[in-house]
UniProtKB/TrEMBL annotation:
Residues 141-288 form the GFO/IDH/MocA-like oxidoreductase domain. Signal peptide: none annotated. This is Gfo/Idh/MocA family oxidoreductase. The keyword Nucleus does not apply. Keywords: NAD, Oxidoreductase. GO terms for molecular function: nucleotide binding; oxidoreductase activity. Residues 6-132 form the Gfo/Idh/MocA-like oxidoreductase N-terminal domain. It holds the Pfam family GFO_IDH_MocA. SUPFAM superfamilies: Glyceraldehyde-3-phosphate dehydrogenase-like, C-terminal domain, NAD(P)-binding Rossmann-fold domains. It comes from the Bacteria. The lineage of its organism: Bacteria, Bacillati, Actinomycetota, Actinomycetes, Micrococcales.
Length: 388
């Protein structure tokens, strides 16, 4: 009989709902997990969110304030899916209470807050997980395997492009995501942090950056009460406010071993919906992956050009979800893998999931890119402290 682990959820938005489903699905796909998640309590200031938590997701209780959740004896782990500006407070409270936590990215408002969280977790020995879900795509797992096995030869350059349209409508509300005091960065932290993680997970650590940023939609209508998502609409015909962070970013980078990298991201691109791509080039071949065709890997390892390989058994955790190539996995499955890794980390008392240190590293690259965009200079990125 698996041991019970009580789950406390902070914020019942889209990602909180996804965390909840992922906990319940984790043991379906990873039946050897020694922990059985129980959805105990959810916290959300919105009455509708609290009702959804109990009536739909199946939480035993819902409260308005996260401070009424973290210290409870029946809560063993905490999922932090709140807006970014609350992450530090909630994560440090979970750490102080000795509770492992699963937190979405960006983990903090920049490298300083992310570093506080990562150091505190390391000092207390608190295992954690961070929502870098794209690294769990089976084709990305295979890409990393090929790179580290030397199948592409010496890696020469890598390219990541994350282009989306979720903020392309000028009528989209001026939510907290567009404010420096609440989010700090715009698309750099929200989206390109995923690209940084892919580069560092698949190829190696980013050591130096040179960047430029642009804000194309400079004003947005003020939000209606409760608006918080990427897709919230502003009050039509009402007052507008200034967008305080970047819609677009382009980054040149050097990795520790001299590999060149190009990273580009936009939240206002018209055309791409979720065009998140990774390309790795080497002296013996190259590979390409695009989230919009998540279950395919394009590989060129001879002179005949690219061939498309369908993800299947042997590609990451694919066989946990589907019996054979051609039957596709989806976005929610990536979060299920994340939940399983988090639960395994809790059970074994060691870090198996993408960590707070990984999030701190990504935030350091984002901060350096912002500094470079402001100064026009190349910025070196200090390696993290060894104990993190």
């Amino acid at each position: 009989m698996a041991d019970r682990v009580g789950v406390g959820l902070v914020s019942v938005g889209w990602m909180g709902r996804l965390h909840s489903r992922a906990y319940l699905a984790a043991r379906h796909h990873f039946p050897e997990l020694p922990l059985r998640p129980e959805l105990v309590v959810a916290a959300d200031p919105d009455a509708g969110g609290r009702a959804y938590a109990t009536d739909v997701l199946g939480y035993g209780e819902a409260v308005a304030d996260h401070r009424d959740l973290i210290g409870r004896d029946d809560v063993d782990v905490v999922s932090i899916c709140s807006p970014n500006f609350l992450h530090r407070e909630i994560a440090l409270a979970a750490i102080a209470a000795g509770k492992p936590f699963w937190i979405e990215k960006p983990m903090g408002r920049g490298a300083t807050e992310s570093g506080e969280i990562a150091r505190a977790a390391a000092e207390r020995g608190i295992v954690n997980a961070v929502g870098f879900n794209y690294r769990h795509a089976p084709a990305v797992a295979k890409a990393r395997e090929l790179v580290h096995a030397g199948a592409l030869g010496r890696i020469t350059n890598v390219r990541v492009s994350l282009l989306a349209d979720y903020s392309s409508d000028p009528a989209g509300a001026l939510t907290w995501r567009f404010r420096r005091d609440r989010a700090v960065s715009g698309v750099l932290g929200d989206l390109l942090s995923h690209g940084v993680d892919l580069v560092q997970h698949v190829v190696g650590r980013i050591a130096r950056v040179s960047a430029l940023t642009e804000t194309f939609i400079r004003e947005r209508p003020l939000p209606a009460a409760g608006a918080a998502s990427h897709f919230s609409r502003g009050n039509e015909g009402g007052p507008a406010g200034t967008v305080e962070n970047e819609d677009y970013a382009a980054v040149l980078a050097r990795l520790d071993d001299g590999v060149a990298a190009v990273l580009e991201s936009s939240r206002v691109a018209i055309g791409p919906r979720a065009e998140y791509g990774l390309e790795v080039y080497g002296t013996k071949g190259s590979l390409r992956w695009d989230f919009q065709r998540m279950n395919e890997l394009r590989l060129a390892d001879d002179a005949s050009g690219y061939r498309t390989i369908m993800a299947g058994p042997g590609f990451g955790h694919f066989e946990r979800f589907q019996p054979g190539a051609g039957t596709s996995m989806g976005f929610d499955d990536l979060k299920t893998i994340e939940a399983a890794q988090f639960l395994a980390s809790v059970a074994e008392g060691r870090q198996l999931a993408p960590s707070a240190a990984d999030a701190w590293s990504a935030a350091s690259v984002v901060d350096a890119a912002l500094e470079s965009a402001a100064s026009g200079r190349w910025i070196d990125i200090r390696a993290l402290e060894p104990d993190a």
